[in-house]
């Protein structure tokens, strides 16, 4: 898939087929996520891959917008490792770049995924930290249920000329 086509056709997928995702595909998706830019090249990310149906059901119970995780074959928790930061506070941007790469890689492989925000909502942060048994210096940014899409995708033109400003607002 050509890059700009992937950017325009990637959609949040919340319905999945009951079909496993090969480990090699998950590794390829994580390789793409770890190719993201980061402040000072610190790469302050950690990823928790969940395939256990009980863990995925528990994730669905933690977050009001993660109900689809109970039917997803895979969930990936994208986390920031504060002990790896070179520039404190930039982990959110770094992990967001990794998250976007992850979503695009999944789409490019024919999978569907949805970014569900965890950080900075404290009860979600605590819930996912507990579920994944994260050490105190690792903070969950977002959770991605993913699998083979059981809903249509499609392209949308979201370009907005009125959002572009030249030199000043």
From TrEMBL:
InterPro entries: Nitroreductase, Nitroreductase-like, Nitroreductase/BluB. It holds the Pfam family Nitroreductase. Keywords: Flavoprotein, FMN, Oxidoreductase. It comes from the Bacteria. The keyword Nucleotide-binding does not apply. One of its GO terms (molecular function) is oxidoreductase activity. Signal peptide: none annotated. Residues 7-68 form the Nitroreductase domain. CDD domains: nitroreductase (cd02150). PANTHER family: IODOTYROSINE DEIODINASE 1, NADPH NITROREDUCTASE. This is Nitroreductase. The lineage of its organism: Bacteria, Pseudomonadati, Thermodesulfobacteriota, Desulfovibrionia, Desulfovibrionales.
């Amino acid at each position: 898939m050509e890059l700009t086509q992937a950017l325009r056709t990637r959609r949040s997928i919340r319905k999945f087929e009951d079909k496993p995702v090969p480990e090699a595909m998950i590794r390829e998706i994580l390789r793409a996520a770890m190719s993201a830019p980061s402040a000072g090249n610190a790469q302050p990310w950690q990823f928790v891959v969940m395939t256990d149906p009980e863990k995925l059901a528990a994730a669905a119970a933690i977050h009001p917008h993660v109900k689809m995780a109970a039917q997803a074959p895979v969930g990936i928790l994208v986390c920031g490792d504060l002990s790896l930061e070179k520039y404190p506070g930039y982990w959110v941007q770094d992990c967001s770049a990794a998250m976007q790469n992850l979503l695009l890689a999944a789409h490019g492989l024919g999978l569907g995924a949805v970014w569900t925000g965890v950080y900075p909502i404290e009860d979600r942060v605590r819930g996912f930290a507990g579920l994944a048994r994260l050490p105190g210096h690792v903070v969950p940014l977002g959770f991605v249920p993913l699998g083979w899409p059981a809903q249509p995708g499609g392209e949308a033109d979201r370009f907005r000329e009125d959002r572009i400003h030249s030199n000043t607002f």
